[in-house]
Amino acid sequence: MYAKSLGFAIALILAILVLPSSSYAQSRTATESVADIDTSTHPNGSIVILNKEQTDVPGYVHTQYAFIDQLCGAQLVDHYGPPVDPNDKELKLVEQRACMEIAMNTRDGD
């Protein structure tokens, strides 16, 4: 009886710890899927929210946004996690770094 309770408690703790980390994810896709975004109407380094949906996990949302930059164009990002603030300076820095990596890889031919 004690072993079953201990096993259940460990499984419950692992589920609580793993669920939020697996729900918080981002993926980047090519800009061809967001070709309808006019980058000339948005300032360089801006974040444009395209779609926002609630998830089954409280406090987590599925947000699709585009990071606009003259080096890499509009980069579509699928974000699962806390709500995205388009004015967040930290987020803009992260996206700027990712954009720089994309621009560097494009020029290198990798």
Nutshell version of this structure?
This protein has 110 residues and is of the alpha+beta class. The chain has 2 helices and 4 strands.
Features of the shown structure:
single chain; 4-stranded antiparallel β-sheet; 2 helices; 4 strands
Can you walk me through this structure?
- This protein has one domain (26-108).
- Helix content is 38%, strand content 29%.
- It is built from two helices and four strands.
- Strands 1-4-3-2 form a four-stranded antiparallel beta sheet.
- β2 and β3 form a beta hairpin.
- The longest helix is centred in the first third of the chain and has 22 residues, at 2-23.
- The N and C termini lie far apart (57 Å).
Roughly what is the average pLDDT, rounded to an integer? 75
**Gap between N and C termini, in Å?**
57 Å
Q: List the secondary-structure elements in sequence, H or E.
A: HEEEEH
Shape: globular
The tally of helices reads 2
Describe the secondary structure blueprint for this structure.
Elements: H1 2-23, E1 25-29, E2 46-54, E3 61-69, E4 73-81, H2 89-108
Antiparallel strand pairs: 1-4, 2-3, 3-4
